[in-house]
Specification:
The complex is a heterodimer of chains A (109) and B (115). In chain A, a hairpin with a 5-residue loop joins strand 4 and strand 5. Chain A is built from no helices and 11 strands. Helices cover 0% and strands 60% of the residues of chain A. Chain A has 109 residues and is an all-beta fold. Chain B is mainly β and 115 residues long. Helices cover 0% and strands 56% of the residues of chain B. Chain B contains no helices and 11 strands. Classes of the chains: A mainly beta (109), B mainly beta (115). The interface between A and B is medium-sized, with 23 and 24 residues.
Chain lengths: 109, 115
């Protein structure tokens, strides 16, 4: 079974700072997704990464994919309070989606 | 109207009750999923339906019984649940064939409490 590991599990950061969340997965896949979940809410799709070296950016979030290292990163630039949420990566193979444990991000003023 | 709709949003049931969760997707997708999300645990895939056929059952206890009458509707029938089954149950859908990067879209979830 494909395993997806995220770290850190919990992240507390000050506003204005930068940080990176890491997502490692155990077997070959060509699709990597990032989702955001606010407390009590469902998961919202952020990025879909389809090829080695893919980089996507939306606002203060930037995601990248290294398929050879089986690693994706979600980089947060100049964090603001609105980014506080839980972030999940997921790896797709066929019609299966395997999710990481999530990273709970809290941005402190 | 959101792409994936789940009802009810909240459900409290006794261990001897029978209830059902309902999911409807309006995205024209051909695959539907049930996931379980418990506190401090990863998302657990429960069932996958592809073109109405069940293609995955991740060792889910028989007290959970899925039903997929068509590509747009998915049910999760609940019977004699245990308190540890209390969780957020998320329905999702995706397009299996077509563009490579098709993502999975989630409903708002059904919060289940078993008492």
């Amino acid at each position: 079974e494909l395993k997806v590991e995220q770290n850190p599990l919990f992240l507390s950061m000050q506003e204005g700072k930068n940080y990176t969340i890491y997502c490692n997965y155990s077997t070959t896949s060509d699709r990597l997704y990032w989702y955001r979940q606010d407390p009590g809410k469902s998961l919202e799709s952020l990025f879909v990464l389809l090829s080695n070296g893919a980089v996507k950016q939306e606002g203060r979030l930037m995601a990248s994919l290294d398929t050879k290292a089986r690693l994706s990163t979600l980089h947060i630039t100049a964090a603001v309070h609105d980014l506080s949420a839980t972030y999940f990566c997921a790896v797709g193979t066929g019609n299966q989606f395997y999710f990481g444990t999530g990273t709970s991000l809290t941005v402190i003023p | 109207e959101t792409g994936v709709t789940q009802t009810p949003r909240h459900l409290v049931m006794g261990m001897t009750n029978k209830k059902s969760l309902k999911c409807e997707q309006h995205l024209g997708h051909n695959a539907m999923y049930w996931y379980k999300q418990s506190a401090k645990k990863p998302l657990e895939l429960m069932f996958v339906y592809n073109f109405k056929e069940q293609t995955e059952n991740n060792s889910v206890p028989s007290r959970f019984s899925p039903e997929c009458p068509n590509s747009s509707h998915l049910f999760l029938h609940l019977h004699t649940l245990q308190p540890e089954d209390s969780a957020l149950y998320l329905c999702a859908s995706s397009q299996v064939k077509g563009a490579k990067g098709n993502t999975i879209y989630f409903g708002e979830g059904s919060w289940l409490t078993v008492v």
